[in-house]
Amino acid sequence: MNSIMIQGTSSGAGKSTLVTCICRILSNRGFKVAPFKSQNMSNFAYVEKNFQISRAQAIQAIGARCQITPELNPIMLKPLGNYFSSVYVNGKFFKKMHAKDYYSKFVNHDGIKIVKNSLSKLRKQYDFLIIEGAGSPAEINLKRFDIANMKIAEITNSSVILVTDIDKGGSFASIVGTMNLLDMKHQKLVKGFIFNKFRGDIQVLKPGFSKIKKITKVPVLGTIPMLKIDLPEEDSLNVNAKQFKWSKHNLEKVDSEINRLSKIIEKSINLKSIERMII
Questions:
Q1: Cβ neighbours of residue 86 under 8 Å, at least 6 residues apart?
Q2: Tens of pLDDT along 74-96?
Q3: Low-confidence ranges of the chain (pLDDT < 70)
Q4: What is the pLDDT at residue 278?
Q5: 199 vs 32: CA distance, rounded Å
Q6: How large is the greatest C-alpha to C-alpha distance in the chain, in angstroms?
Q7: Tell me, what's the pLDDT at 84?
Q8: CA pair distance 9, 220, nearest whole angstrom
Q9: Which CATH class is domain 2-278?
Q10: CA 254 – CA 24 distance, rounded (Å)
């Protein structure tokens, strides 16, 4: 199984949508592809009779045209407040845990074993795995507990593409700062940058692209324009996510929207470079 990993300089950079669209692009080319996110924090789930996972990975599975299974998101956290979360493992409720206990007693013991087991199962079923990171890989205070970013890139031997939201401002600094805070072995895994949510003339950005390549030795692989996206969003600090009914009509709308977005993104990124990372 070959894989790439999409990480971000921050939450809300556009990782989930990019993973969805890369899955669709590869599926259109006849490959068996699946999304993966080891750990996701969300109050919005895709619920089956026997399991539930984050709805972001369920939407990505629609993009990939693969079966929605617990392996796509083996650990899901539903925040309860006061640093407590409901922890779901392999789609089933495990226990209520305080953040301190989750980090100190779970992630580097049972957690990483659960993630590796899911990866092993997916490796046997699919040609390609498109992996999504969580938040930023440069949260240095949490690095030893992070089982959603560079540790997964190491385990899967994945090239990393770092995505940044330029609409928020500070993208060049975010990229360079993120790279500088990574360990050298992890810096070497990053093979390209993508600027997301850009408004305006791309020619204005190009001098900056040259500068960050000179600083980091890593190229920019594309600039995705600001898009109106009609897909169910994850809840986060800047998004008021809504409930989503998994009806046939809504799923057809989602599928159509993924097709539309994929065509735009396919034209906005250097797909040949990304394909070389996977194949």
A1: 77, 78, 80, 93, 95, 96
A2: 999 999 999 999 999 999 999 99
A3: 1, 235-242, 279
A4: 79
A5: 34
A6: 53
A7: 97
A8: 14
A9: alpha beta
A10: 12
